[in-house]
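Entry for flavin mononucleotide complex. Fields follow.
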Amino acid sequence: MLKTTPATTLPTPTPHPEGVSNDEFRAAMSRLAAGVCLITAHEAPLTADGPRGEDVGMTATAFLSVSLEPPLVLVSLREGSRMDDLLAEQPLWAVSVLADHQLQVAGRFSMKGRISDRLLFADLPYERGLISGAPLLTGALATLECRTENRVEAGDHTLVIGRVLGAALPSPDSPPLAYFRGRYRLLAK
Ligand SMILES: Cc1cc2nc3c(=O)[nH]c(=O)nc-3n(C[C@H](O)[C@H](O)[C@H](O)COP(=O)(O)O)c2cc1C
């Protein structure tokens, strides 16, 4: 008679429903070194009398170049952030690519729960973009002014694709500010 051995029940691994845990995902993505930007926008269209409303700023690393013809860029904004709410209402925004001496700017504009950006901007040297009305930081490596072409909901973020309408190099030779493994980094010169 054929002897059968009872099947051993191996513990089946219980994968995370999405295939990866938050910690695993964060740890993997933290190994992607990124440049740091300040995304800015002005609440209301510019008028002949100057700016109305408040300026909003947000530190972001999820910013990239998408297309050359036409020139398109993309920023990924957490759904419900002030910048996401503002850019759902109006299409003009700007990007300042931060230099290493602007580390504190990145820190301030990523603070959760800050009431208003008015005081933060009051402390900073900037010019107002002629196209977007948004603050363009003096001393940034580069600045871009954009108009939203497309918004795509992606999980808990909104991908905002913008056409670049203006670009400048206020301080092109400064060393960049980088972010890697959860910390700001100054690149060795
Ligand atoms: C280095 C760094 C990079 C960040 N990059 C992004 C980003 O690409 N997109 C985003 O939505 N938030 C990003 N954040 C978080 C926002 O800066 C932060 O949540 C926001 O300024 C808080 O404003 P809120 O209260 O309107 O959300 C980043 C934060 C840090 C410190």
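NOTE: The chain has one domain: 24-178.
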